[in-house]
Design goal:
The chain is α/β, with parallel strands linked by helices. The protein has 5 helices and 16 strands. Helix content is about 20%, strand content about 30%. The radius of gyration is 19 Å and the shape is globular.
Length: about 290
């Protein structure tokens, strides 16, 4: 029986690679060198990896499945999905901002500068900008702040005004405010001083809506903030999108681990976050 090849070898970034055999396929497995990998605070790390030309075509809101080293003597059987924090096409890098919470991310945290990082992607459906939008609002909390980075960059590049509301437990956990400040106005709301209270965030959004600085909503990282934007979106006719955070196994669709319930035209339906998302219409989301 003739030998059958079921998978392609990974694309080696900056290596000797043949022409792309299937350019119509938007995702691929690639080995890229770690450019930098630093702690930004006690909980989060910032990973920068060399990416392939195909991977650099990633869109805001898409994610990559990263093969993580094991942090201990056990095996890690599954990759870990990571949303894109920044797409640096000029330098050929992809950036990720992630929280070290489990064995996978603790293993990923051991990657050193010069190590190979095996990534599959870009995966999923990303954000889109409403045609004709002049000003948008992005609202993120915790690690969801990282997911808001690329859509803020894209909006700024297209001349769309951005107001970024960054929610966190304390000031030292407000990440990427320097990135967002390059795209527009930054408003920090914190648990430590009470400014993250839902009533205060509502007041901020109301002011932005009244000032006509909210042609579209984008959010990630918090159920309560997502529901607030959903409510105001209905009330004022403002379209919105949400990036769903969800545990995944394969990240490619077949396993159905990441299925969530959505409400579409009054009917409940199940969708896979990895394939039909991770970005969904705000009004169709029923929460995490």
């Amino acid at each position: 029986m003739a030998k059958t090849v079921f998978t392609a070898s990974p694309y080696v970034v900056d290596g000797v690679n043949p022409p792309d055999p299937k350019p119509e396929i938007p995702a691929e497995e690639a080995l890229g060198k770690v450019v930098s990998h630093d702690w930004v605070n006690a909980e989060y790390k910032h990973l920068v990896v060399k990416a392939s030309p195909k991977q650099l075509k990633a869109k805001p809101g898409q994610f990559f499945n990263i093969l993580c080293p094991s942090p201990d003597d056990g095996e890690l059987w599954l990759r870990r999905p990571q949303s894109i924090y920044r797409i640096d096409r000029e330098n050929g890098n992809l950036e990720f901002l992630y929280k070290c919470v489990g064995r996978g991310t603790r293993g990923m945290a051991t990657l050193k500068v010069g190590d190979d990082c095996n990534m599959v992607g870009p995966l999923g459906i990303g954000f889109s900008l409403k045609p004709g939008a002049k000003n948008v609002v992005v609202l993120g909390r915790g690690v969801g702040l990282a997911t808001m980075g690329p859509i803020s960059q894209l909006a700024a590049e297209m001349g769309v005004g951005v107001t970024a509301i960054l929610s966190a437990r304390s000031a030292d956990l407000v990440m990427a405010d320097d990135l967002f400040s390059k795209s527009g106005e930054v408003i920090k709301v914190l648990d430590s001083d009470g400014s993250s209270d839902i009533a205060n965030v509502r007041a901020i959004l109301d002011r932005l809506i009244a000032a006509k600085k909210a042609d579209a909503f984008y959010t990630c990282g918090s159920n309560r903030l997502m529901f607030l934007m959903k409510e105001l979106g209905v009330k004022h006719g403002i379209p919105g999108q949400v990036a769903m955070e969800q545990i995944m196994a394969c990240g490619l669709g077949p396993c159905y681990v990441c299925v969530r319930t959505f409400e579409v035209d009054g009917h409940k339906e199940l969708r896979r976050v990895c394939i039909e998302g991770p970005v969904f219409d705000l009004q169709e989301c029923t929460g995490w």
